[in-house]
């Protein structure tokens, strides 16, 4: 898979050195994006970036350089039933970036395709949603046969963790209960098979703007 390293980090360093105003973040509005793009580089470096394929070519971007836009077209009516209460009151409005590819919306997911086999214990890493800020709640969930399965959900307390195997590529629904700006803080960790040491990406902040 072709990867292009964004020049944003280089530009940022030059801007800071020059004392000029910061550059504008890249706003992503539709198309394929891996919000959590996990890479491993020997010896022991685990990184967490955004895998932006919205243009058709994969560009790796630092999370701080990206804003994910959730437009009014993402609005849904919250279904009836207690299983859906994490999105709000039944009959109310929530904003959801869908699990399936939908024109005009981001198709948001994650991948560990650059994590090789045999590096981490159980051939897996741990995704952790540490904290968030925003006007409502945020959730990441899948739906099968009309029933949601919550993977991450701020409405019942954080942190939330998920074990993700190496070489995985997954898409899910990303839900928001109110319009406004959300900052969602993720970290990925893994235990090295060779030494048992834990390596981490550090906590990275991801920004979502939900339009009314």
Low-confidence stretches: 6-21
Overall domain count: 1
Based on CA inertia axes, which overall geometry fits?
globular
Gap between N and C termini, in Å? 36 Å
Helix and strand composition category: mainly beta
Q: What does the oligomeric state look like here?
A: single chain
User: Counting H and I runs of at least 4 residues, what is the number of helices?
Assistant: 1
Largest sheet: 7 strands, mixed
How much helix is in the residues? under 10%
Strand residues, percent: over 45%
Series of secondary-structure elements, N-terminal to C-terminal: EHEEEEEEEEEEEEEEEEE
Radius of gyration: 18 Å
**Mean pLDDT value:** 92
**Total strand count, please?**
18
Can you put this structure into words, describing what you see?
Mean pLDDT is 92; it is low at 6-21. The longest helix is centred in the first third of the chain and has 11 residues, at 8-18. The protein contains 1 helix and 18 strands. The strands form 3 sheets. Strands 2, 6, 10, 13, 16, 17 and 18 form a 7-stranded mixed beta sheet that branches. A 6-stranded mixed beta sheet has the order 1-5-4-3-9-14, with no helix packed on it. Strands 7-8-15-11-12 form a 5-stranded antiparallel beta sheet, with no helix packed on it. 5% of the residues lie in helices and 51% in strands. Strand 4 and strand 5 (59-61) form a beta hairpin. The chain has one domain (4-210). It is mainly beta and 212 residues long.
């Amino acid at each position: 898979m072709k990867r292009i390293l964004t020049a944003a980090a280089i530009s940022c360093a030059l801007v800071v050195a020059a004392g000029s105003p910061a550059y504008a973040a890249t706003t992503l509005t539709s198309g394929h994006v891996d919000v959590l793009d996990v890479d491993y580089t020997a010896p022991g470096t685990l990184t967490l970036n955004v895998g932006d394929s919205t243009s058709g070519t994969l560009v790796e971007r630092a999370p701080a350089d990206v804003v994910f836009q959730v437009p009014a077209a993402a609005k849904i009516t919250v279904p009836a039933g207690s299983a859906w209460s994490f999105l709000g009151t039944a009959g109310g409005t929530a904003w959801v970036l869908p699990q399936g590819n939908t024109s005009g919306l981001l198709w948001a997911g994650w991948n560990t395709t650059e994590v090789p086999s045999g590096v981490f214990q159980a051939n897996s890493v741990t995704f952790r949603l540490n904290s968030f800020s925003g006007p409502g709640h945020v959730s990441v969930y899948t739906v099968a046969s009309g029933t949601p399965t919550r993977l991450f959900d701020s409405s019942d307390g954080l942190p939330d963790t998920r074990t993700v195997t190496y070489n995985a590529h997954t898409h899910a629904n990303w839900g928001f209960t109110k319009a406004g700006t959300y900052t969602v803080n993720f970290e990925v960790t893994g235990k090295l098979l060779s030494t048992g040491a834990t390596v981490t990406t550090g906590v990275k902040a991801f920004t979502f703007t939900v339009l009314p």
